[in-house]
Amino acid sequence: MSLAKVRSVAFRGIEGIPVDVEVDIGSGLPAFNIVGLPDTAVQEARERVRAAIKNAGFEFPLRRITVNLAPADVRKEGPVYDLPIAVAVLVASGQVPNHFADAALAGELSLDGRLRHVAGVLPLAAMCAAEGISTVVVPQEDTAEAGLVGGLRVLGVETLKQLAQPPESWPPPLPPTACEAPLEVHDLATVQGQEHVKRSLEVGAAGGHNVLMQGPPGSGKTLLARALPGLLAPLSPIETIEVSKIYSVAG
Question: Are residues 140 and 221 both part of a single domain?
Answer without folding.
Answer: no
